[in-house]
Amino acid sequence: MKTTPSSAPAPPSDTSRGHPTDGARSPVREEELRESRDARLAVRLALAATVEPEDRTMTPRLRGLDPFTAWELVRTDVGGKFTRAAARLKALRLGPLVERTQQLGARLVIPGDDEWPAGVDDLDSPPYCLWVAGNVSLAQACERSISIVGARAATPYGTQVAGEFAHGLAERGFTVVSGGAHGIDTAGHRGALAAGGVTVAAMACGIDIAYPVANTRLLQQIERSGVIVTELPPGSAPQKQRFLSRNRLIAAMTPGTLVVEAGLRSGSRSTATAAGRLGRLLAAVPGPVTSPASAGPHQLIRDCGATLVTDVDECAELFGAIGDDLGPVKRAAPTVTDRLDEPDKRLLDAMPVMRGTTVAKLAISAGLTAREVTRGLAALHAAGLVERIESGWRRSAADPALSPGPASTACRCPPG
Q1: Taking a C-beta distance cutoff of 8 angstroms, is the pair 46, 40 a contact?
Q2: pLDDT at residue 86, as a whole number
Q3: Is the dihedral of CA 271, 273, 277, 279 positive or negative?
Q4: How far apart are alpha carbons 18 and 89 in whole angstroms?
Q5: Measuring CA to CA, how many Å separate 10 from each of 33, 190, 233?
Q6: Which of 291, 327, 322, 292 is nearest to 311 (CA)?
Q7: Non-local CB neighbours of 39 within 8 Å, separated by 6+ positions
Q8: Which of 274, 304, 393, 409 could staple 300 via S-S, CB 3.0–4.6 A?
Q9: How many helical (H) and strand (E) elements, i.e. helices and strands, does the chain have?
Q10: CA dist., res. 123 & res. 119, Å (int)
Q11: What is the rounded distance in angstroms from the CA atom of residue 171 to the CA atom of residue 37?
Q12: What Cα–Cα distance (Å) separates residue 321 from each residue in 169, 170, 327?
């Protein structure tokens, strides 16, 4: 795709300061060019390079317009409503921008391409185009995916949980999508990579910038085995409002979002808000009620309809395919006493621990007949729960209730 050293073409012509130079265009030729991917890419690239994502002045006026109409409004500054784009419009050079993208080994993806993630079309203002780097198709990676987000200043608890969840979900075939930042994002990416899975880093800067710098090696690993994506042109620096715009992409690309840790004012809350607005699934991991880092997830669970999840199985069941990712039912480990009938349980409860006792005394203590006590003692003795000593009957030392530690532990049992 070639352009003159001026602003982007108003397809099909080249431009000189944004004005056509080849005279009138026939309607047939205009329609043919609009159907050309090169023309659509040129216009979308120009819009992405001149209009800041989620700009509160320009974006609402461009919402719902086809890219050709939108570009004409921006290029000609209709009604003086697009003056903010003037400086970028003057400096715009599409040729070098495309060349820089190619030098970086990245690719440009626009709606209609096989690699375009369908979920972003649900946004009120989808990206005009995406810069993508990596050896995996972005669209395929997002088909079975989950975004894991949270605080940069994560606690050891939060990073451990995020890493374990990402690792387990990656083993189950989920792509982990996050923002490449410190804390929960980093833990999520690393967990997926450790499992040999795919992870996607959605950046709030140009594809040529590794941010944060401390995560340069991590981002290189992600590019080798996953995908890095951004809606910002090369050279775009990370800025606060761009992180918020980026968060909407994270929410849109995946079927659901998991918030591990977040303060009440955390940026990851914006991802959760976007997920809810888009009708995506939303889940949150609980934490200590004394931890400010868990205040955000707690509020999402209490006020925003987020599903409380505590392990990988619950996440997979929530975000996965119905039936295929059904998690096991959790039950406490069965004990010997679970199999006793009601009279035998009463008899065991009445049994002394140290000193022996008689059948008569047990009948009074348990409120049973002598016959019930005699029959029950035989059953309890066979189960190893009581023993006979010189002074009578007492609980056996092998009784699990007398052993140190909890009487039962959680286990995973099949539904039934």
Answers
A1: no
A2: 94
A3: positive
A4: 9
A5: 11, 44, 19
A6: 327
A7: 11, 12, 33
A8: 304
A9: 17, 15
A10: 8
A11: 37
A12: 13, 15, 11
User: Can you give the length of the chain in residues?
Assistant: 416
How far apart CA 133 and CA 36 sit, in angstroms, is: 24
Per-residue pLDDT of 185-206, as tens digits, reads 999 999 999 999 999 999 999 9
Structure tokens at 82: 């697009």
Would you say 203 and 179 are in contact if contact means Cβ atoms under 8 Å apart? yes
Token pair belonging to 72? 């004409």
The pLDDT tens digits of the residues spanning 296-338 come to 999 999 999 999 999 999 999 999 887 676 767 777 777 777 7
DSSP state of 213: G
Phi-psi region of 323 (alpha: psi -120 to 50; beta: other; left: phi over 0): left
Distances (CA, A) of 245 to 112, 123, 130, 231, 403: 22, 11, 13, 9, 57
CA distance 275 to 281: 7
d(CA 231, CA 242): 10
Beta bridge partners of 107: 132
Q: Is 172 helix (H, G, I), strand (E, B) or coil?
A: coil
pTM of the model: 0.80
Q: Distance between CA 244 and CA 255 in Å, rounded? A: 19
